[in-house]
Amino acid sequence: MVATVAFAGAVQAQNATFLPGQLAVLRTGDGAVNPHLKQAPLFVDQFDPNGFNATPSFTLPIPTNGANSFFFNSHAATEGLLTRSSDRRLLAFAGYGGVNLLEKPGTPSLLDIQRGFCTVDATGIVHTYLYSAHDSAEKVNPRGVATDGSNSFWGCGNAGGTLYFNPITTKTTVQFQPLQNSRSVKIINQNLFVALNGADGIAVDEAPGIYQFTDKAGKRLALPRQADATIDLMLPATAPYTKNVAFDMNPSQTMAYLSDTVGGIQKYIKTGGTWKFAYNFAIPQNIPAAANHATGCFGLAVDFSGPTPVIYATTTEGYGGTVNSNRVIRIVDTNATATVTTVAQAPSDKMAFRGIDFTPENGR
User: Fold this and answer.
1) Which residues of 22-36 are buried (b: 16+ CB within 10 A; e: fewer)?
2) Which residues pair with 329 in a beta bridge?
3) pLDDT over 50 at 93, yes or no
């Protein structure tokens, strides 16, 4: 308990805000709340991307009660993705709000709780944007969100959870009809992309992979806002890596990485106008196989700024049938045998690292 309390508290007195160029990791759990309760406090931890971190250099707690209270299902395999806005000013993630933590105990996706998005800026200011589930009788898991930083949000989830929402102008959500289920969403070079994995694809009769949006005439929609926008498979996921979750691409859209909850991280290269699987990074495990939850990765962010891409991800390890005691890892992609190193280790089976991206900035 002492170790987990020290981790949760971090060293906020030394850093009152996020620092640029660092990693932001969405953590669920404070070392006390059992993840099997399916509701746990959330934190955004800051880590130095260039070495091992015994503790975060800064931790921002997300409110668990009051107007900005927000949480997601820490036991769910699909919830807790994190993205940075396309203008780099905000971190964003999806979940539930409008009630205090554990005020309505149970599985959040089955409860009459508002869904929504939460944003965090570089100074640690938290905002929540809530909406009512479009079908209260259906199990709807909000999984992630992308935003332009100007009140437009694109969410991913199941059962009608792929949607557009602007709390200022639209008030209600716009569900993308051809894409009821989705695993992750991201804005890259001012274009929205969404990923389906194998299970999502079966539900909507589509192949797993990364999709872009088009209008009915086939013209690409950079940031779609209409319900009848259609989807176009851009990058098909290669079997057996169809348990894909998060993804990232370079701005020119010629190199991409996908995380897979069992396989690890896959690299794809676009040559001659066609995306081709390059290789997979398997993740060395710290938990014995008999006790381990999974062997792959969930959250993913890639630094494309240098000559060699640097990959950061959260693992899916854990005890007791859920993700916990897992890691933030780093891979400098020199080749298929590049070394996997640990950036941070969750110190408790009541803590888990989920989404990952780079820290928000104060403007561009």
Assistant:
1) bbbbbbbbbbebebe
2) 313, 342
3) yes
Structure tokens of 185? 């969403």
Query: Which pLDDT value is given to residue 203?
Result: 81
Q: What pLDDT, on the 0 to 100 scale, is given for residue 7?
A: 36
The DSSP output letter for 18 is P
List, edge to edge, every strand of the sheet that includes 255-260. 244-249, 255-260, 264-271, 274-281
Q: How would you class 334 by CB atoms within 10 Å of its CB: exposed for 0-12, middle for 13-18, buried for 19 or more?
A: exposed
Per-residue pLDDT reduced to its tens digit, 55-88: 999 999 999 998 889 999 988 889 999 999 999 9
Give dist(CA 244, CA 260) in Å, integer.
4
Q: Are strands 83-84 and 70-71 parallel, antiparallel or unpaired?
A: unpaired
- Which residues, including other chains, have CB under 8 Å from residue 174's CB and lie 6 or more apart? 163, 164, 165, 225, 226, 227
Q: Looking at this protein, which amino acid is placed at residue 55?
A: T
The angle formed by the CA atoms of residues 10, 6 and 103, to the nearest 5 degrees, is 85
Nearest one of 105, 114, 101, 127 to 30, comparing CA atoms: 101
User: Percent of the chain scored above 70 by pLDDT?
Assistant: 93
Nearest to 250 by CA among 234, 265, 233, 270: 270
Please check whether the domain covering 2-358 is classified as CATH 3.90.1150.200. Answer: no
Chain position carrying tokens 């299902």? 73
Question: Does the N-terminal peptide bond of residue 240 adopt cis geometry, omega within 30 degrees of 0?
Answer: yes
Using DSSP, state whether 210 is helix, strand or coil.
Answer: strand
Question: Tokens standing for 237?
Answer: 């996921």
pTM over 0.85: yes
Residue entry with tokens 């669920």: 28
What integer pLDDT is reported at residue 4 of this predicted model? 30
List all residues 6 or more positions away from 32 whose beta carbon is below 8 Å from its beta carbon.
Answer: 1, 4, 350
Question: HSE (CB half, 13 Å, CA atoms) of 289?
Answer: 3
Instruction: Locate 62 and state its tokens.
Output: 């997300």
